[in-house]
TrEMBL record:
Protein name: Methyltransferase
Compartmental location: Endomembrane system; Membrane
Keyword field: Glycoprotein, Membrane, Methyltransferase, Signal-anchor, Transferase, Transmembrane, Transmembrane helix
EC top class named in words: transferase
Lineage of source species: Eukaryota, Viridiplantae, Streptophyta, Embryophyta, Tracheophyta
Molecular function GO labels: S-adenosylmethionine-dependent methyltransferase activity
Organism from which the protein derives: Vicia faba
Amino acid sequence: MGHPNFPHWKRPNTRQWRLLDLITIAFFSLLFLFFVLFYTTLGGRRVVGPSTVDPQQRIRLVAAIEEGIPNGRIIEACPASEADHTPCEDPRRNSQLSREMNYYRERHCPLPEETALCLIPPPKGYRIPVQWPESMHKIWHSNMPHNKIADRKGHQGWMKREGQHFLFPGGGTMFPDGAEQYIEKLSQYIPIKGGVLRTALDMGCGVASFGGYLLAQDILTMSFAPRDSHKSQIQFALERGIPAFVAMLGTRRLPFPALGFDLVHCSRCLIPFTAYNATYFLEVDRLLRPGGYLVISGPPVRWAKQEKEWSDLQAVAKALCYEEITVDGNTAVWKKPAGDSCLPNENEFGLELCDDSGDLSQAWYFKLKKCVSSTSSIKGDYAIGRIPKWPERLTAAPSRSTLLKTGVDIYEADTKQWARRVAHYKNSLNIKLGTPLIRNVMDMNALNGGFAAALKSDPVWVMNVVPAQKPPTLDAIFDRGLIGVYHDWCEPFSTYPRTYDLIHVASIESLIKDPASGKRRCNLVDLMVEIDRILRPEGTIVVSDAPEVIDKVARIAHSVRWKPTIYDKEPDSHGQEKILVLTKTFWKL
């Protein structure tokens, strides 16, 4: 029936109006809920959505977070599919690039405005990693549930799945019976023991068992491999607590200093050392310390159907005056001359000395050279046999240290200062250095490696990062028997998510500023989102800087879901800087 007070032609259609009301109410309710979720507090927090479409919106969001307006705003999680995202080695992006000299497997970073402003989530079932040294042999399967290597390489002793864990028997393609036996074999030809050798480079390392077992001989190995068909091999290595880094020997120099490694090793790394006028061998020569050792195991060494490649490899080594120590089965060992190369001389590859070797240690986005770099421009006693043995070389002033320009006393004072500072971190700030809770450590602004040197007695290894825009001090760090890389912190780092337990950074704002003009090259929000990507849940960040910078970082920390605690400067410090200790919370999707 119609309404009794209306004529039949004016009576409303009650059923129709009720339906429209419901639709209208539902629409405005959803719209209201959207604004509540995006702009206002819900459950005690505000959420910032990823922005890839509108660069200006992204800029405004970053500015609002930096200024803390409004307080409580947090950055939302990236999709679950991005749990293993490596921004500069993203196969979805890089697969479109040239294959020539493996260019597509090198670093190719997106611009910030092309990147979603979001936090990488842990995978479903993620657990706090197994502690060192047990992690060397066993990790949680759920932390990186990728079975490809175990399925394809299990018979070679790389790794296998057993229940909730991946197990690592210690084998490799060229040493299926285990790295320990392989290292023992190499020790017949190389001074593995006794501290003569300290820094090693393992090229195409797999899951880094070779580097892992060298630790027992006090040899610190930088293991590297690209992000390729063997998904997450570097991620497995880092989860085990073994030093490792995502890299590819392609068109550019590797981001390491000249003449830094005492040993370079390739076990079936499949690098074509003599291709492109022996360009890749020349890069190895740049990295290898005079008097150091080169080991190539597997193709092309006495390999069927690769006789020419093997002959060429021997010819290049001979042209550079490398001494062939042995060829044992499919393993060849050479020793680099302690002095400068014997070139120029006649050789079939047309190898010549470079016209200018002053750029020998330039290694950040620096194209490979097709000439031999002379070491005559580098002064100091850094050859094997002249440099002190380990552990004495850690505390001996390296001849290539920039601190020596102001005197040995300055170097010794720096070393003592770091020892006091680390003791303060442990005793007063309750940082768990020296315990099984911390294994993988990074120093984002390493200078001369003083922080890492002060951790010598702790069960840790340290990735010393020297910012590319700062003085190139990485050579002195390697001379001390430590390892690290060059990097520009306005770009993502070449590692997988959740790979470091503790990240240390002095003068964090200097990492994003131009050293000449003082102008910002990028922003703190993106830098801290990147730190969050590479830090493990419940991991620690230690920042020391001026009070105003510390306050700014602490403001941003809430948006990145970190818990900040500000401390005054350490005792006996003459500066005004403060210390900020941050803890990454363990959140899940």
